[in-house]
Amino acid sequence: MLGFLVKKNFFDLWDNVFKIILINSGFIVFLSFSLFIPPLFAQVPFMGIAVRLIGFLWCFVYLAAAALSLKTISDYSNFGFADFLGNLKIMWPAGLFFGICVFTGYIVFAMVIPFYLGMNSLPGLLLATIFFWLMIVAILSLQFFFAIRSRLDTNLLKVTKKCFIIFFDNPIFCVFTFIHNLVVLLLSGFVAFLVPGPAGMLLFLDEGLRVRLMKYDWLEANPDANRRKIPWDTILVDEQEKTGTRSLRSLMFPWKD
């Protein structure tokens, strides 16, 4: 399953590389404004902080709209500029909610954990350890937040709950997905995060969730089946056929096929 997921993601990235670059370019522009515009308001009390916070929250709203748009690529379809604007109107609450979650996580890592470690006591070390592992679980779970919002539910609290359900039922898959996207992010740095970049990471998360949900459809149709032995070759027959295989020649020069 993981091999198919990586292959499909690569083909989808290749087929939509210009849209991926365009989405990433927009994100980079907005993130740059969030980083470099606030210092211009340094003389106005709290204005710089407010502008930076608004800028970062807008970046998450942008990513939320990007996630819903990229879902169409996962589903072997396409999207246009008008679709992206419409998705902004749909996904802005999810973007704000997730941005607040990320900010809360930052506070925990930057202030709460160091505070307990600074107590230099066993209870402080214990509390710091608990918060650390809670944050690790939260990161591995909430990485699917936008994908689950796009595919399963519009209630943000239910979306959050389903994120943790997915993690506890598929911990190895969630760890693999996180490591994959971390490697993708590091490699993207060599091309200024234009490709695969954040858009490529969102696409992989959506495709990963999409494929994983097929397991639950199969289990629902086969309630007596062994949950530890999922016949992925059978489940993914249609997906394998749709994705197909390509040679290097067909990737570089598709018009010659």
Report how far the terminal alpha carbons are from each other. Answer: 28 Å
Indicate the radius of gyration in whole angstroms. Answer: 20 Å
User: Strand share of the residues?
Assistant: under 5%
Share of helical residues: over 70%
Total DSSP helices:
12
Q: Could you list the spans in which at least 5 consecutive residues all have pLDDT below 50?
A: none
Overall 3D geometry? globular
What is the average per-residue confidence, as pLDDT, rounded to a whole number?
92
DSSP E strands, number: 0
Indicate the structural class: mainly alpha
Order of helices and strands: HHHHHHHHHHHH
Largest sheet: none
Query: Domains counted in the coordinates: how many?
Result: 1
Features:
globular, single chain, 12 helices, 257 residues, mainly alpha
Textual characterization of the structure:
With 257 residues, this protein is mostly helical. The protein has one domain (2-256). The chain has helices at residues 2-15, 17-36, 47-74, 81-117, 122-142, 145-151, 156-169, 171-188, 197-221, 232-235, 237-243, 248-252. The longest helix has 37 residues, at 81-117.
Describe this structure in a few short sentences.
The protein contains twelve helices and no strands.
Question: How do the helices and strands line up, and which of them pair or pack?
Answer:
Elements: H1 2-15, H2 17-36, H3 47-74, H4 81-117, H5 122-142, H6 145-151, H7 156-169, H8 171-188, H9 197-221, H10 232-235, H11 237-243, H12 248-252
Helix pairs in contact: 1-9, 2-3, 2-9, 3-4, 3-6, 3-9, 4-5, 5-7, 6-9, 7-8, 8-9
